[in-house]
Amino acid sequence: MAEKIKILENFVNNELPKATEILSEQLSLNLKEIEIEDALCDVLECKEHSDLLSHNLTSNKIVELLLHYQFEIIIEKEQIILESSILPAGFPTILNEELIKHKGERWFIYLTDKDSFPSNPHAHNSLYKLHLGNGELYDKRKLVGNIRKKELNLLINKIKNNVIADAVKKLKIE
User: What b/e readout covers 115-127, taking b as 16+ CB neighbours within 10 angstroms?
Assistant: First the structure.
């Protein structure tokens, strides 16, 4: 487990940010790390972002894999966040996301993610999924632990996107 954490920390703190910066500059795009992860999952045919860790990716390898990737497929050109949806009930909505930095970790929170497991919304880091209602941590779909209620509340209180914050409030915190 310690080796997996070391690989995760290196990927998230070093290789991914460096590759994002290089690709953004070389492609004249303002890429986000999550877009790089999405593209890598597409190219490497990963089912989960955590599957990327088994590829032992360096920033140079990431750049090599994605230099000719068509990021237009996954990049939103412009994002407008409304207080509430303007679409009639039952219509599918756009993917909303937010990056939360908490105690040196980066958590992406998705609303209306294509995979709503373990909750909608839920948070991802490069290794785990976090149920935002009860703090359960999952490795893929396997429950591997829980975070303390205090830590969960600290993370939730950092959410700035009102649409996501309202959806999180609807989840029952046990």
Answer: eeebbbbbbbbbb
- Which two three-digit tokens encode residue 150? 């205090």
Band of residue 61 on the pLDDT scale cut at 50, 70, 90: very high
Cis amide linkage into residue 121, ω under 30° from 0: yes
| Domain ranges, residue 47 | 2-73
Pairing mode, strands 136-139 and 129-131: antiparallel
Q: Is the peptide bond before 118 cis (omega within 30 degrees of 0)?
A: yes
Per-residue pLDDT for 94 more than 60? no
> Same domain, yes or no, for 116 and 153?
yes
Residue 137 bridge partners (DSSP)? 130, 145
Whether residue 100 sits in one domain with residue 66: no
For the chain, the domain total comes to: 2
Could you tell me the pLDDT band of residue 34, with boundaries at 50, 70 and 90? confident
Residue 114's Cα: distance from chain center in Å? Answer: 12
**pLDDT tier, 93 (very low <50, low <70, confident <90, very high otherwise):** very low
